[in-house]
Amino acid sequence: MAFYSLAPLTKQRVMQLKHSMEKNLNALGVLGRIYLAPDEGIGGINCQMSVPLARMDQVKNYFKSLESDFGKIEYTQGMEDTARPSFEKLRILTKKNVKLYCHQTIY
Predict the structure, then answer these.
(1) Is residue 99 part of a domain?
(2) Where does the tRNA uridine(34) hydroxylase N-terminal domain start and stop, copy by copy (predicted)?
């Protein structure tokens, strides 16, 4: 599952989101990479995630609760049943510009 949203986030909000996402998404078994950037550069979020099918709705609801930060999210979903996930762990990174890391699709 992947998405991105350009959004004016303060440095403080980026750090709050980072800690919240680490806690909540790890609890849901999400693996992948999430990039967050403050509005000092090109602010927003970019996600590429492997989500257990049984937790897909919970993950979407979690991000729906963040609409005030990111707006309505349009997901790119690719269903692939694999014995080994595409990612080894969840990494949430802060960057200067989110646009440099944006990809609309995940393969």
Answers:
(1) no
(2) 1-98
